[in-house]
Amino acid sequence: MKGRKMPKRKAQYAIATLASHTCLQILKGAKDEGFKTLAITPAKSVPFYKTFPFIDEIITVDSYTDFPRIEEQLISENAIIIPHGSFVAYLGFEENKNMKTLYFGNKDVLDWEADRKRQRQWMIQANINVPRQFEKAQDIDAPVIVKSYGAAGGKNYFFAKNKEEFGQRIKTFKEKEYVIQEYIIGVPLFIHYFYSPLTEKLEIMSIDRRYETNVDSLGRIPSQNQEGLGIEPSFVVVGNSPLVLRESLLPEAYSMGQRVVDTSQKIISPKGLFGPFCIETIITHAQEFFVVEISCRIVAGTNIFMEGSPYSQLLYNEPMSTGRRIAREIKLAIKQERLGEILD
Ligand code: AMP
Ligand code: AMP
């Protein structure tokens, strides 16, 4: 943003993103809100993205990591980048922070999100339940999940039912940095929020549960038949399914989101966290939420709700995906001449 002169009309901006992850949802939403749309894609994906009439322009790159090479063009088109899961995965953390193109969101949040220790500190300060963590192997007194630091999508995690099993498995574990967390038995539930710094209002947009292989399929084989097979649970995400929450649990789900936002404004920067974010929870038999992670951007599970969810329908009475909600925020900011508050 830094001192850049901002045009005053919506027609002078384009909404842009990398062609992967939630690109279709983001650009469809942007078009529905009247924006020009732009997808950045490697040549092999062009035929696919060309089939969608709501994508106005496609910029081809050799690979996603070529992104910096096309920045001048993006800047000249007043493109506003909407970050999603592919950005940090393909461009890396530093490149994300150094991006000069207009960027929807607060980049300071990246420092907190990328660091598991800081993430945990943020949640605790927001009075959110987090699973216990064991610093030393001899302290383990419950089943645990061992999570490598940089892993994406649950890859390279392992489960150990006690201290002894942990001791065995850790010998062959290749990752250097990891956390040992109490394994919470319950239903994984991912809550998609949107916080508007313009209206100062938080919304629950939708909820999904991830489908992970093989942990979500182990129950298909009775335990007596599994005996001796040596099957280990793994947590690799392969898809998402929709879920509506017991209504009596919704007020607490909402309050957790609000506490996360309020705390971010104290500890991250005055702007804190805004736009779409997701807290990954597990709900136990006692109907207690445990938060295992926070994603500070649009998450892939929102793709189920391209036409909106039961919750966004109640809030908007029209199809409102998270992608479209982002575009609507940008539209409002242009109208109120407050773009500087939502772009980095
Ligand atoms: P891709 O969609 O392949 O560009 O993935 C970009 C990043 O998002 C990777 O780190 C993936 O692990 C992650 N990702 C993609 N789809 C999902 C999903 N359905 N749930 C959770 N993470 C995902
Ligand atoms: P994460 O990388 O933290 O999003 O975790 C990926 C998946 O691992 C989650 O969707 C859960 O299925 C599982 N998981 C992570 N942490 C825990 C935990 N403390 N207890 C039980 N399952 C967990």
Description:
The strands form three sheets. The chain has a five-stranded parallel beta sheet with strand order 3-2-1-4-5. It is α/β, with parallel strands linked by helices and 344 residues long. The protein has twelve helices and 13 strands. The protein starts with 13 loop residues before the first strand and ends in a 9-residue tail after the last helix. The chain has three domains: 103 residues, Rossmann fold (3-Layer(aba) Sandwich); 141 residues, 2-Layer Sandwich (D-amino Acid Aminotransferase, Chain A, domain 1); 77 residues, ATP-grasp fold, A domain (Dna Ligase, domain 1, 2-Layer Sandwich), CATH 3.30.1490. Helix 1 crosses helix 12. It binds adenosine monophosphate (AMP) (2 copies). One adenosine monophosphate (AMP) binds next to strand 6, strand 10, strand 12 and strand 13.
The number of E-state strands comes to 13
Number of H- or I-type helical stretches: 12
Regions with pLDDT < 50 over 5+ consecutive residues? none
| Number of domain modules | 3
What's the Cα radius of gyration? 21 Å
How much helicity do the residues have? 25-40%
Q: How far apart are the termini?
A: 5 Å
What do we call the CATH topology of the largest domain? D-amino Acid Aminotransferase, Chain A, domain 1
Q: Which ions and ligands are bound to the chains?
A: adenosine monophosphate
Spatial strand order of the main sheet: 3-2-1-4-5
| CATH homologous superfamily placement of the largest domain | ATP-grasp fold, B domain
What amount of the residues lies in strands? 15-25%
Rounded average pLDDT: 94
The CATH top-level class label of the largest domain: Alpha Beta
What structural class is derived from the secondary structure elements? alpha/beta
So, CATH architecture of the largest domain? Answer: 2-Layer Sandwich
Largest sheet: 5 strands, parallel
User: What pattern of helices and strands is seen along the backbone?
Assistant: EHEHEHEHHEHHEEHEEEHEHEEHH
Q: Which geometry do the CA atoms define?
A: globular
